[in-house]
Amino acid sequence: MPLDDRLFHEPDQREASFLGDLFRREAVGGGIALVAAVVGIVWANSAWASSYFELRHLQVGPLDVEHWAADGALTLFFFVAGLELKRELVIGSLRRPADAAVPVAAAVCGVAVPALLYLAINANGGNPEGWAVPAATDIAFALAVLAVVGSNLPTALRAFLLTLAVVDDLIVIVIIAVFFTDSLDFLWLAVALASMAAWTLLQRARVSTPLVYVPLAVLAWWAVHECGVHATIAGVALGLLTRVQHDPDEETSPAEHLEHVLSPVSSALAVPFFALMSAGVVLEGGAELVSDPIVVGVVVGLVVGKPVGVFAGGWLVARFTRAELDTSISWRDVVGVSLLAGIGFTVSLLVSDLSFTGVERDAAKTAVLIGSVVSAVFGVVALGHRDRFHSTP
To answer: What is the pTM of this model?
Structure first.
């Protein structure tokens, strides 16, 4: 069978080197964000809880600290995600429709199944507005777990997880833009579009100075924020508009350079800052949480819906096409990676903020934390076994 008919085939040497660097950065960033989230939870439930919530609501310029974390820090995270997506679409694993079919199908099913499970659980007496909360996969945390327990797993499997998460991010970004935009200020929207058009022209003109791009990015971000669309969409849009193919006289393209420079800042500072400000929920309710349809819907969506959807999407492509798994992996490996897809964390916390307020928001965030931890544990168990299998000569 030709290599192109195989699912999750091994990347070439250049792609494998890029993925290796990315995995290391994301793994470190995931560990830092986990520590930040734990600090936020402990702080919010300690004797000094009032200082935590005072910090979150502290006004700094036009926004308070909590919104600087969600609308500001996460914009950098989504800008890097946009760069990664552009790279995958142009020169990476999504550049050929045949190769893109598997992660796209897996991501679509991985978003649809948990959303449907959440809606089913909240159909009677619950709150259906949180259907998008369990839809997202957190790439940093998933890769961090994979780095710890999957050092011997094939690179093809790691590449699949990365591509899956990138497509997953794109779908959730569209959901945020479409379903969480109540009204539009068309004047600010015009400013945002003009800023993005200028960014594109500067890229085509091969302008490289940050003295032009930084003010333009800030203007685009604020214009998107003010027009009524969530500010993180500006980050994704600018990432997708950045040139990813390098010229003959360039060692790296602008997108690759920016990703190399900003990815550590995003994973080590921006995401942990958001985790610290967002994960600090007051843990109370006890037995009531077990029966809360919001909590049950989010946990079931992440722990059950995500892996079932991801695995089913990949399997259906194999079932109804001529494609087969690469010889380096098996469907048991895919099951392990599918379990990691249930780690929602960063984007799921963001969608919780957009979907709910007050007690319901805290319940959704608590469920995200529980579901992500359970998914990580299941993934560790499954992939730990497969890692030992692959390490056997």
So the answer is: 0.85
